[in-house]
Amino acid sequence: MALQITDESFKEIMNGDKPVVIDFWAEWCGPCKMIAPAIEDLAKEYEGKAVIGKLNVDENDEVAGEYGIRSIPTVLFFKNGVLKDKHIGAAPKNLLEEKLKAIL
After folding, report:
1. C-alpha–C-alpha distance, residues 1 and 13, integer Å
2. pTM for this structure?
3. Among candidate residues 62, 49, 52, the one with its CA nearest the CA of residue 17
4. Pick from 18, 35, 73, 98: CA 20 to 30 A from residue 5's CA?
């Protein structure tokens, strides 16, 4: 299951030694619901290799503001705490997985 990330837990997660993928979403967002199964699948398939998480922008606006999230869903890909890639909008699982593999 994808990790629920908050403004408070973000820094701790970023200090880990694994790549981090964060899905910025909101409950009311239709396209966010479309990619949710892909995010959950990736979380299961890459458990132990990467941290896959979700950050609700309505409840956690600090991190969303820091990264200039203006449209959701936005998926950010980090390695060693550095933003390496992003995808804005709904996307098929294979596209998200390609971006994840590029930072592993």
Report:
1. 16
2. 0.96
3. 49
4. 98
Contacts of range 88-92, beta carbons closer than 8 Å, 24 or more positions apart: 89/31, 90/31, 90/34, 90/35, 91/35, 91/38, 92/38
Structure-token match 């030694």, residue found: 17
Structure token digits, residue 7: 């403004």
End-to-end CA distance of the chain: 19
- Structure tokens, 20: 């981090």
As annotated, the active-site residues are 29, 32
- Can you tell me the distance from the alpha carbon of 42 to that of 44, in angstroms, rounded to the nearest whole number? 5
Tokens of 80: 């060693």
User: Mind listing the pLDDT tens digit for each residue in 88-99?
Assistant: 999 999 999 999
Domains delineated in the chain: 3-97 (3.40.30.10)
In angstroms, the CA 89 to CA 75 distance is: 8
